[in-house]
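Page 42, continued from yesterday. The earlier attempt failed because a stray header line got pasted into the input along with the sequence. Redoing it now with the clean sequence only.
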Amino acid sequence: MTGIGTQYKKTTDAPNSDHYDELRALEPDVLRKRFKDFETEFLNSLELSINGQTQVLTLSHAKIDIIGYKKRPRKTILTYQVKLSEWPKTLAWQYGKIYGDSALRWQMYKKDEYNWSQWQWLRNGKPSSVIDINHPEPLSTTQRFLQFTSIGFDHVIPKGWDHILFIVGMALSSLLWRQLLLLVTTFTLAHTLTLGLAMIGVVEVSARIVEPLIAFSIVYVAIENLMTHQSIKRKSIVVFLFGLIHG
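This time it went through. Structure tokens are written below.
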């Protein structure tokens, strides 16, 4: 509704962040009504094609969380349905570029049960390929590697200067490449662990707690380089703990 997509690491970086804050403070019922006025514009940026025919999406349910902490996005689940005149064989999906990247997966009926497909990560508003629902072609190891490498690169270079500063601090603390490799690997494992737990909803910590701790980790590494000399074992423990916070 604000046009603030994943191109911004923080909503406060967007020029219309005030509009976001206004919507973020609305009660679920009020926000649901505001979305109803916006829905036509939203649907114009989406396209679901089944058996080569563009489908008309109808909103069946909108689940919006309570207000909670206003500086953190609240979960919203929009459930749409379509009326089909024939059994679906192929599908394709496109999500508006203005709303950021999207992850696509679908349910398949296989071996007398429904199973979720692999994820497809759609970027820059590009449509998915035409998917054969009955005979899906899984992504190859190379395709999956390239896909997640690209996502990881974007996460670190344009949006992850805090991670870069921390890693630079680690590099300055150890000029031996084996020790540096150990520290970077430890940081990556810890970062991946908490990132994965956050994605599946096991861990959820407010940004107002995490962001200051990330800043503290960078300052800590800088001071440590200037004033102390720690063993590689102790450094690894510290890096692992800070890696959990960065994740």
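Notes: The chain has seven helices and ten strands.
Reminder to self: strip header lines before submitting.
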